[in-house]
């Protein structure tokens, strides 16, 4: 049996409907991808903000620890300067240099 004119017309209408349905689906997918991409970009921005804040915080913590170490080292040196004064060339408590051939007295 050969298709009639009505069958051909119905098939053509159905093809157009299918094409339109696919087009709408593609547009909906594109909109979804666009929204999703924006959400992902915002998440990435937030992650970078947190990352930068953590780096800053770590840098501050390291600087504070270094400063504390310097203070401890300075205190240690200050307390032990009199013990080290017999070492050749080391500064004494008064800040002068011992002679080259200094001896322990």
From TrEMBL:
Keywords: Coiled coil. Residues 37-75 form a coiled coil. It comes from the Eukaryota. It comes from Mycena alexandri. Residues 13-24 have a biased composition (Basic residues). This is Uncharacterized protein. Residues 1-24, 83-105 are annotated as: Disordered.
């Amino acid at each position: 049996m050969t298709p009639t004119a009505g069958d051909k017309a119905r098939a053509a209408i159905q093809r157009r409907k299918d094409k339109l349905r696919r087009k709408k689906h593609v547009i909906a997918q594109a909109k979804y991808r666009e929204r999703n991409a924006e959400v992902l970009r915002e998440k990435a921005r937030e992650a970078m903000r947190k990352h930068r804040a953590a780096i800053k915080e770590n840098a501050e913590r390291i600087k504070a620890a270094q400063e504390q170490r310097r203070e401890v080292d300075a205190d240690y040196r200050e307390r032990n300067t009199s013990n080290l004064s017999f070492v050749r060339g080391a500064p004494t408590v008064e800040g002068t240099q011992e002679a080259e051939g200094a001896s322990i007295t």
